[in-house]
Each structure stands twice: as C-alpha cells, then as structure tokens.
Amino acid sequence: MSLSEYLDESERNWKKNEILKARNLLKYLEQHIPVDLRKVAHSENELEILGKLHVWLFNFYQKEFLEGLKYINYDVLKYKKHLIYSFILSVLRNKSNIDILYDVLVSKEIIEKMLVYEDSTYEIITKDFRTISFKKASNIVDEETKKYLESLGNQIIDGCHEITFYLIQKDSNLKAVTSICTKWLDCKYYHSFALDYNNNVIDLTANLIMPQDMYYLLQDVEELNVVNYLDYLKEENNSIEYEESKTLFPLLRCALYKQF
Q: How far apart are CA 89 and CA 132, in angstroms?
C-alpha cells in the first residue's frame, strides 16, 4: 500500500464514522424534538443539517440535544470544546455569528466572559477548561508572510501543510507539527501547524496564535511528526519512495510515513 492509498483509506474511514454518528444523532433528535429539522435546515444531508442547527439545538433543546450526544457516545465536554473553538475561529475570522455564539456560551455557562487586552491578547474565562488565551496571527506576522498568505486567497483554510512548510523554511526556530486533530462528531483529520520557541502554536489557517497546551486540548491533537526544516531534509528521502502519486505535501508525506 502506498502512502496516498493509506491516506485515502484513513480519510474514508473517518468520514464513514462521522456520517454514521450524524445519522444516529439526527434519528434520535427527530424522535424526541417536535420540529422537522430537515425542513428547518432546508436539507436532507445529515451532516449539513447538524452543521447548521447544532448551536440552535443546544440553545433551545439543550436537554434533548445533550441526551442525543450521550446516545451516540459523544462526550459532552468534547462538544463544549468544539463550541469554544468555533467561537474562537469566529473571532479570528471576523465572522458575523460572533455575538450569537458568545450569548449561547455565556447563557449556558460554558464561558464566563471574554477579555481583550491592549496588546490584542484575547482571554476567555471558561468553566471547565481554565482560562484560554490567544491572539490574531495577522497582528504579528511580518509583511512578507502576509503577502504570501494573500497570494493563496481562499486556499488558506485548506492549506495547513503548505503554509506550515513555508514557515519552517523561513524561520529555523520554528518546528512543524503534523498531527491528527478531531472536530465536531469525532471527525478526525490531518493537520499541520507551527510551534515557536515559547511553545506557542502558530496556525495561520485559523489566523491563530495560542499556547500549545490549550490548543492541544481544544483540538485533541495527536502528534505524528515534529520537525524543523533541517530535520525534514534528513527525513525527506525515506518517505518519497512510498509515495507513488507524488502529490502529497512534504510534511504530510513524512508524517504518514512514520504513521504507516
């Protein structure tokens, strides 16, 4: 099996698991909530329905929604982490739903409040996960990096491996972490980001700088490979012979080789 085939198989299995959980959760909710969720979401796709409505469900049908999560063996604390991280992404990307998410998080006592300091550091006081601090990477990165990101356009969100590789080539003090992260409904995905010498995560796909321990907690990070650019050059040749397609990003290829 080549690395590309291994990647495809892993992602197919993760997607199947996500779809199964979405289907079972939606089935449970349809039996316990007097609302036609498919009609409200204008969709028949289980993942799309829950993607659109999960915050609304948590807000207005909290008891039934949390019981549904337990029914599919999805940890409620994981859902709370997902909501917090979704809110952080909304702040970082200046999304229009910031106020709605904030009101839900406060009213459901997941967070107490968010503070913003003069140095542009954000701080979220949470009930279950201590205090979470973060910054917008766009306020810190240099002009050359900003121009590079602008050149990617809408590809930034899906460009984690490419962007992280750019960072470690540019700065020898940075390390690239290629990992498996987990999002809504236990959907796993391969993700790369940088670590600086102060153990801060630099995730430019999210416009985020955050202490490593909090990022790992919110994203359920499972490290596969950690390299600086010199380390990568030493590992590069070992992984190339197992990658027949020649299409994998370098950091992902090296991480898959170690996992494989």
A: 13
For 33-66, b/e burial (b = at least 16 CB within 10 A) is eeeebbeebebeebbebbebbbbbbbeebeebbe
> What are the residue ranges of helices labelled H in 108-173?
143-152, 160-170
pLDDT in tens, 87-137: 999 999 988 889 999 999 999 999 999 999 999 999 999 999 989 999 999
pTM: 0.94
Contacts of 8-13 with CB under 8 Å at 24 or more apart are 11/189, 11/190
Q: Is the pLDDT of residue 154 over 60?
A: yes
The model's confidence at residue 70, banded by pLDDT at 50, 70 and 90, is very high
Burial tier of 13 (Cβ tally within 10 Å: 0-12, 13-18, 19+): exposed
For residue 181, list its beta bridge partners.
189
Biggest alpha carbon–alpha carbon distance for the chain:
59
Q: Environment class of residue 6 by beta-carbon count within 10 Å: exposed (0-12), middle (13-18) or buried (19+)?
A: middle
Contacts 24+ apart (CB under 8 A), 118-123: 122/88, 122/91
Could you write out the DSSP letters of every residue in 165-203? HHHHHH-TT-EEEEEEEEEGGGEEEEEEEEE-TTSEEEE
Distance set, CA 205 to CA 30, 134, 162, 194, 202 (Å): 35, 14, 10, 11, 9
pLDDT at residue 218 above 60? yes
pLDDT for 239 = 67
Q: What whole-number distance in Å separates Cα of residue 150 and Cα of residue 152? A: 5
